[in-house]
Amino acid sequence: MKQTIEQRWDLIDKIAKQTVTFGEYTHSLKDAIGELTIKPFTGIPIAIAIMYAFWSIFGSFAGTLFTDGFMVKIFDGHFLPWMQNIFPGDGGWLYYIIVGDPLADNSFEAFGMLTSGLFVAIGVVLPAIFIFYLMLALLEDMGYMPRLAVLIDTVLHKIGLHGYAIVPTILSLGCNVPGVTATRILETKKQRFIMMTLLAIFIPCGAQIGIMEEVIPDTMGWVLLYLIIGYFVFGYILNKIVPGKSPEFLIDVPPYRKPMISNIGKKVWGRIVGFFKVAIPFVLLGCGIVNVLYLVGFIDWVGNILSPVFVLWFGVPEATAGPLIAAFLRKDLAVAQLSVIEMTPYQMISAVVLVSIYFPCVATFAMMIKEGTKEMLGALAVLFTVVFLYGGLIHLIGILLGVA
Amino acid sequence: MTVMKNVLSGTVKGGTIDALAKELDINMSTLLAMIDFLSDAGYLEITGLQCSCQASNLCDNHCGLEGGSQTKMYALTIKGEQFLSCTAP
Question: Distance between CA atoms of B32 and B18, rounded to whole angstroms?
Fold first, then answer.
């Protein structure tokens, strides 16, 4: 008599129970320690502590020690005056593009290709991403990342992703370019689309965070809060409207291990070299192009045209048009430019959030095209809708709070 | 419910293999062998073989024994889904 699948499996089960020793679940000390970082009750406080340590080290070493302690002194005290003195044609258009404002007394406000451009890339971004990638490599090498992925899995399923989406998210906090590449680790088209869209809109890169810490240290928390809220709210909406599946996974998490210095060194070096191949040309080019656009009056013209949208809808000064154009080339540069525009603290928060969400930088944009033109166009459509809605909403919140 | 079916149901719920072993009170190596069998038989598939250095362009050189440890991720196949749905109580 032919048996059904269920009957066959029952038979297999009976035979297996008589012939196979299943053993009992045993738990070693190493397993118990590993479990502490996965179970929400202990895992969440540990994750918060690790992130806090991550952030504190990032801020103290990158911002305070390297940038303020060394780089600002070198660039403002020596390099900028030297460039201003030796470059010929003081006040000419070439001088304006290469050195920037001849009266500037700090590298942030000069806005020349070789003054602000080099200061942003080497003085601010390099320490920030070095510390960021060093700590990330350490967490990866010791095996914490898969555990963080398991811990956050439930939350990320609400936005159509799974736990491993934390990897492109965290990588994007260093640079969006490898973050977009890392979306390949997600299994379905729906997940990759949601991830790429959220990265392009809501995840500020390390360079941008480094600059924010330098120019808006007091209000930076609000900017990040708006971005985190946007990440989850729009992720939830995308999960509801984008067709496709977000399946669950059974994960075989490897044990913790001692980090290897050689591994960490190679990873950090590789990522920094990769980052600089992208960052240096775009920062310098960004400074140059924006200066040319200022010189020919293009930015003032765009500012005038978009003035009603900027002032009435987003609640920011029309002068933010320039930084928004620069943000397409480098967002860190754009935040630095915003710092010299006169505005209220809330307008600064709105403007920095807008710079973050309005368009991916050109390097990220190029990587998105490489990952799929159709997905990129979809992501851009979502992006424009989000910028308009979220930008307006932030302005509305400011009005309701009486701070806009 | 058979043990194999419990393993497949556990995959639908998600989580770690260690947690599933604990739930089913089975030795880890036995459970891993069962998962391998279910993968070979087409009920489960390995959807991601994630290296701890994933997304780095150096990953290929740094994964495996010398580099970062690997994380395997299993998902239910269509065959697995059909089996669970057609034998559902």
Answer: 10
